[in-house]
Every structure is written in C-alpha cells, then in structure tokens.
Amino acid sequence: MKTLLIVLAMLLTFPFAYADDDDDSGYGKNCTYIGSWFGYNSDEEVAWTSQANGMQSSHGTMLLEIPFDPEAFNDFGFNAVGLLSNLKGEWQRIGHNTFYYRAASFAYNADGDAEWLAKLTGTATVTGDECDVIEIDDTVLSIYYSDADHELIDDGLFYQIEFGSHKGYRIRNDLP
Predict the structure, then answer these.
(1) pLDDT: which is higher, 168 or 29
(2) Between 103 and 106, residue with greater pLDDT
(3) What is the DSSP string of the chain?
(4) Which residues is 104 bridged to in the sheet?
(5) d(Cα 158, Cα 176) in Å, to the nearest integer?
C-alpha cells in the first residue's frame, strides 16, 4: 500500500515538475526581466536603455541610462555641474510577469559634493510572444535636497515628476 501511495504521488506531481513556460493559467509565458532593454517615452521618442541582472528571475540589480541635465534644477538654488552616473538600483518580481524597480543617482557640484538625489521607481510588465516587449507604468522621478553639509536628505522631497505609460523592447544581437 505504501508503494502504491508513493507511485500515485509521483504521477500526480510529474506534470508540474516538467511543465514548460507556457501554461494554461491564462497568464501565458513566465517571462523574465533579466536582459537589456531599449525604451521609448510616452510620446514614442527614444528615451532610455536599461540592463537588468540577477542570479534568478525573482530579483536582481539594474542600470538605467537616461539623458538628463542636472543643471536644469540650478534655477532653484542648486549648483550642480554633473550627474554621478546613470541610475543604479534593484528590481523584484511582484507578479507573474510584473516587476517593481527602484534606482538612484545624485548630482554633484564643482567641489564634488552632492547637490541633490534622484530616485526613480515604477513597474515593468514583460509581454510579447517572445517576452521581448516591456510595458512601463507608475514611473515617478523624485528629487531630494542635500543639507548644508551636502549630506543627502531622504525625507527632503524637492520635486516629483510622474511619467506616462511607455514601452521598451529587448535588445537582441543576432549571432552569426
């Protein structure tokens, strides 16, 4: 009887252990965010590139490259001359093919001190027949003050921009 129960248990779990990416759940493929992306803004103009890395498909790190002039805020009393780098951050899976991301960078002045901190958050949903389209929603760029000692103040929100929904496409290189 014990052997029969073990065989029955194995037969019941076999289809789940070897299921492919397409399932009958109504969600379609189990896409990953890991990879390189080329994106457009809500006006369908080229606007950004990003790269998501991870040891597994549930969370990892990211690099977001966007054209941004840190001197644009100098009319508000800042003295920024450059941006440290592109935004760097992390991402995590929050749904079947949906991911939450957050990234940051800061602007610096001529002495190399921090002038303000930029944080970008949003959600990304990977779609398409080959998981090659990314739909970006709920994107918010928040700019925070630094104090008199040029320490960044995380609760010193200065300015916030909400972006409309936009898309990106997976960067693929055709190998010979």
Answers:
(1) 168
(2) 103
(3) -HHHHHHHHHHHHHHHHT--S--SSSS-------EEEEEE-TTS-EEEEEEEEEEETTEEEEEEE----GGGGGGGT----EESSSEEEEEEE-SSSEEEEEEEEEEE-TTS-EEEEEEEEEEEEEESTTS-EEEEEEEEEEEEEE-TT--EEEEEEEEEEEEPPEEEEE------
(4) 88, 119
(5) 50
Residue corresponding to tokens 């941006």: 83
Domain residue limits at 105: 31-170
Please tell me the total count of domains within the chain. 1
Q: Is residue 42 part of a domain?
A: yes
d(CA 113, CA 129): 47
Neighbouring CB atoms inside 10 A of 114's CB total 20
Q: Which two tokens stand for residue 71?
A: 């001197």
Residue 136 covered by a domain? yes
In a domain, 96, yes or no: yes
pTM to 2 decimal places: 0.77
Q: Hey, what are 144's tokens? A: 């925070």
